[in-house]
Batch of 2 targets.
Target 1
Amino acid sequence: MTAKKILILFAHPSQARSEVNLPLFNASRMNYVTCVDLYAEYPTFRIDIDKEQKRLLAHDVIIFMFPMYWYSTPAILKEWQDLVLEHGFAYGHEGNALQGKQFLCAISTGGPKKAYQCDGSNHYTIQELLQPLEQTALLCGMDYLPPYVLFGARTALEEKRLASHLTHWQDILTKLINSEFAGIQFSKQDLLSHPECKQVKK
Amino acid sequence: MTGYFLQAFIYLAAAVIMVPLAKRLGLGSVLGYLIAGVMIGPVFGLVGSETTTIQHFAEFGVVMMLFLVGMELEPKVLWDMRNRLIGLGGLQVGLTVGVITGLALAFSLPFGVSLTISLIFALSSTAIVLQTFSEKSLNKTDGARNAFSVLLFQDIAVIPMLAFIPMLAIPELVEQSKALAGTVEQHENYSLVAHLPGWAYGLVVIAAIAFVVVGGHFLSRPLFRYIAASGLREMFTTTALLLVIGIAALMSLVGLSPALGTFLAGVVLANSEFRHELESNIEPFKGLLLGLFFITVGAGINFAILSDNALVIAAITLGLMSIKAMVLYGLARVFNISGSDRWLFALSLAQAGEFGFVLLSFAHQQHVLPTELVQLLSLPVALSMFLTPGLFILFEKVILPRFAENENEQQADEIDEQGSVIIAGSGRFGQIVNRLLVSNDVTTTVLDYQASRIELMRSINVKSYFGDATQPDLLHTAGIENASLLVIAIDQPERALDLVHHVKMTYPKVKILARAFDRGQGYELEKAGADYVISETFHSALEMGKQALVDMGMHSFQAHQQGHVFLETEAKHKNDLYHAWMKSQEDEGHVSHVRELFMNLESALKEEMDKDRAGAHAKGERGWTPRPKNYSQD
């Protein structure tokens, strides 16, 4: 079986202050993984549509890596979707370029996990809040995988939760490359970062 | 006249042959000069007794060197090292004098003679040590800094020594010379202070120093500005020489050390905007004279006396060097100079110095030392200087590697220091680049050839220096070796081009960002090797074009997008145009081809901007196009 190629689209506008996302991005540099720093490549937001579409075609797994900003992506990642996922390419008539690729988000949130539930301060689970991206993936014919989440990211470094988060992530990337998630049916409640998720469910 | 030419030729040829060879063999330039001197002097006998005269002249190189050293030291830095200067320097001279005097007395030499010898031997060679430090880039080490304080103290200590030695005169020698005095005409030295009483002498000395400090601070700027306005480069060199020689003359007139005076002037000028230009003007003279000085030291070694007293001289030389090294090593322990720096400090200063020769001949004149002893003692002084480069090699090859492992952690800090940016030209363009960098804590060195502009920059607290950035010497003194970037924003296109060529050839690691006036110059700069070229009017013109589009009714976001399309289309055609331009430089016939390509660019631009918007692929708007009207999902 051939190794899958992974494309990570990283969006962080203030990297000098990044404690979690930048280390995660840097830990992702391995064989078969293409790491794209969107803010570095397009500081004026002038995204090169042709280049980005070629990148998508050349990879099997698409990952958005970002800190949650107002229950959504940082601005450049939204701009990227608006520009790159064109009719006739990603969706619509003959728009099947992304068909069959896997898609997931690797994100960090400021709030703790218990804030993301119906009786928490954010009222919705992280899975629910990511539904616009889930639906985008589905419309493009992609296979949506559960997100990889670090809750309470502002204190992760102090509480020494970062190191295991990074090694776990590298483990997941290796599994993606080796197609180990193919054909697995995940439930709506699953998180890739959740320990139970390591057990393969058919 | 012919004699002078021949002599100059012999000295220069010896230097040209030996110095690069010594450098290549890893011996350092100082040893090269010394060997060259031995070759033309004692070995082949090409030069003779005139070396002593030349040596006095060449000692002026030391004066110039101290001027340059002073310019590297801001007054604040000098004040900060006052404890080391007096404590370390004073103890070094004091202890060395004590030990050597005791030893000489043990060999039953008279007290006056013993003391004089010890004073002569206590001094080290500023010329060799500082030259070697800078050649081996040891300047910034702790050992070198402490060694420098000691050398500075010694240079100052020479003055009271010159006053003190005559009091030790031996009565019989004075008698002898009085008998001769009638026949030999005494040379009266020029002096302003010879017949003054003590208090008046003190006043004159203070007045002279005050003149150097105050004059250097207040008079030098208007003078240099006036000279710079003349635009004649050689006048600047002349003025710089005038300044150094003037101060040296003043100091000798009042009986102070010229080296000390110029050092002081250097410190005063350390903050001046003309500092780098002054340095690059004086530096070649200093180099030549110091080289000449080292040659004369080598040439002055008297092989006849050496072979007659080989054992005695060897014993004195080794004894002298080991005593000095031990005293220095002990002091380094007390003053907490640690690791390899302690060895550097102890070994670098373990020789006798050029002031030793001065004191020897002075002591001879003043009838303190008999002639035979002076001839004998001048050999250990010269030999110890000869052996010093060897000690530096010992330090580099044997001692430093032993400490290298332990010091790796410490060194990391220094490498962490941010590489600086040199900005050539502080006009309307360079100035903005500089302001952005400085406000982001990037250290910059700004150079400009218009004194008025520098004045303006200094008046708003922007650190900038007067000087022609296209002069290799000035770039060197501005620190191009350690710079990571060079920003070229000077007005003369040919000079900018020369500068790119020179820097790319000599310092390939330095990245060059260059400002071009127009497309042609931009290509030329790129061809010369500039890493990033920007046309000075391009982006502002584009901004204005976008504003014009908005004023004509276009939505400002769309105008912004069209601006991007313009940039991208330009970039896409740039390579073709560049290659066509390169060919047209060689062949006139290609000019029409360039014109043709330019017309292509214009039509491509029009096409990109005009694409049918209904077709949803106008470049400026691509990506926000709504789904087609007939698209249905369900």
Note: Chain B touches chain A through eight residues (CB under 8 Å).
Target 2
Amino acid sequence: MNLSPTQYDTLVKRASPKSKSPKTIIQAFLIGGAICTVGQLLRTWFLSLDISQTHTATLVAASLVALSALLTGLGIYDNIAKYAGAGTLVPITGFANAVVSPALEFKSEGFILGVGAKIFIIAGPVIAYGTIASVIYGVIYWLFTAAF
Amino acid sequence: MELLTDCIKAFVVGGLLCAIGQILIDYTKLTPARILVSFVVSGVILGGIGLYEPLVKFAGAGATVPLTGFGYSLANGVREAVDNEGLIGALTGGLCASSGGITAAMLLAVLVALLFHSHDKS
């Protein structure tokens, strides 16, 4: 079958499931909100144990990462993600999923260049550009506080 | 009662941030990886200019759990480090403040890879 790239594009568009609807946005809202509510329950619980604000933030992040890693390992997180879209992507659990998922997928390529390298395939750019942005902010902040 | 209102606020704000992500997926050509990067960088900018702090005060985990909160903690860490140590803090503050989540993700990824097998992506 000979197809021009534009014909092929239309075929792909017709064949791929339609995801552009208010329904996906509502699903993302509900699941994303639910994940943040779990975070809030953990946060309230840690704060009630007299743990400092800073440590609470770290513990909430680490707990959600652990929960997401477990659910990813069991294959449950990806099933929720099919339904929730950005609802499972935007929370820190989505970040954890983006680290754990390639770890499983590339295990067959070994633990150094398979798992060790591929865990950063999405997390790498996120950490890199986030950190670079924070350095730029830090320099600007330093200029302002040192100069004025 | 306070717990309930805190949870509702976290649910609504966290849900809205995720809905913004979904709108970006549906109506722009941004890939999930680009959306995550944009969220973190936006969090750094909003945290830096002081707009994210009120949201965290209001919504708690609803503002800290989404990846914009990750950016916010990077910005906060850098500001504290610059306050305490001067310009060198710009290099160290960000990763210091966000190291917990990143380290947990790396550790658990390797643990999960040891314990589980890849699932068929059907």
Note: Chain A touches chain B through 82 residues (CB under 8 Å).
